[in-house]
Amino acid sequence: MIRKISSLFPKGTALYLLFGLAALSPLVVNQITAYSKVGVYNELESMRHEMTFIQQQLDDLKNQKKAVEKKYQDDIGRLENKINDLTDQLVNKRQKIKAISSETTKTVYLTFDDGPSSVTLDILDILKEESIKATFFVNGSETETARTAYRRIVQEGHVIANHTYSHDYKYIYQSKENFYMDILKLEALVEETTTTLPPKLYRFPGGSNISRSSPELLEEIKELLSSKGYIYFDWNCCGDDSIGPEKTSQEIYNRVVETGLDRDRLLVLLHMNKRNAETAKALPEIISYYREKGYSFEVLHQNSYICQFNN
Ligand SMILES: [Zn+2]
To answer: Is 37 inside any structural domain?
Structure first.
């Protein structure tokens, strides 16, 4: 067969073919080299593509991160603005309440300190009869009478306020911690007895300018209690029923009228210890005197009229 094919060509053709192939071989090598270069080039190209893709992903993520940060910054900014706004509104409301309460009719705030004792129960009876509410700055006493008084004060719609548990000047005016502990001790007793936590209203035993304590300590106590949300009340009218010699109901009434002057806001200080039976007796006269003068009777609260000696 091969012979048949070779017989078709002139002699020596195979030789020419061999030479021909030898002459072509550099081209073939070049071609192969060119092919491998194309492969590397392609690989590089695809790596470049991948790199560009990764870079794009990275840029996208960075942009997303920026957007989220901006969103939260915006949210935080919005919340901060809202908080500032609401704080302003609160201040305005407080001022309005203060202004309104100073515009309303003349008011008497009856307050009774110390006790509670059986006199407290007598006072509660009189107030019930007169349909008047008052504020009771109580001390701590765990007798049945005192517990009944705590309960009745709350149940009958009066305000129970804090006059420290012990009323012991030596102890409470030793440090702000002692004072605060005594306030908390009374709160616990009242809460346990009445199942209601009393409002954060208090009165310094002896008043907020008492000389038994240093002015510095009084300031520290005021700051500490204010930081806990408490408000203290002094008075601008009193029956002098706690300072001896003991007074008759007529004398107590006279002192209230004399010290009250013609103020529109009267924060009256009276007492309800066991020895204050004359105070209870003076009470109906005091009430009718101010009623006839057009006063109304209110209780103290966080936004009520505040009387403090240093203001
Ligand atoms: Zn007192």
So the answer is: no
For ligand 1, a single-atom ion, the residues with CB < 5 A are 113-114, 205
Centroid of ligand 1 to alpha carbon of 137 (angstroms) = 8
CATH of the domain at 240: 3.20.20.370
* The pairing of beta strand 201-202 with beta strand 107-113: unpaired
* Digit-coded pLDDT (tens) for 4-26: 555 555 555 555 555 555 555 66
Q: Look up the domain containing 216 and give its range.
A: 106-297
Task: Give the mean pLDDT of 81-104.
Answer: 73
Q: Based on the fold, state whether residues 273 and 132 are members of the same structural domain.
A: yes
Q: Could you tell me if 132 and 111 lie in one domain?
A: yes
Angle in degrees, 0-180, between the axes of helices 249-260 and 277-292, rounded to the nearest 10: 40
CA-CA-CA-CA torsion sign (158, 164, 166, 170): negative
Helix pair angle (277-292, 118-130), 10° resolution: 20
Cα 163 to averaged position of ligand 1 atoms, centre (Å): 7
Same domain (yes/no): 138, 246? yes
Whether residue 272 is found in the same domain as residue 160: yes
Q: How far is the CA of 290 from the centre of ligand 1 (A)?
A: 24
In a domain, 254, yes or no: yes
- Separation of CA 166 and ligand 1 centre (Å): 10
Confidence (pLDDT) at 53: 87
Same domain, 175 and 92: no
Distance 289 CA to ligand 1 centre (A): 25
CA–centroid distance, 242 to ligand 1, in Å, is 8
Instruction: Count up the domains in the chain and report the number.
Output: 2
Å from CA of 149 to ligand 1 middle: 17
Output the pLDDT for position 108: 97
CA distance 121 to 272: 9
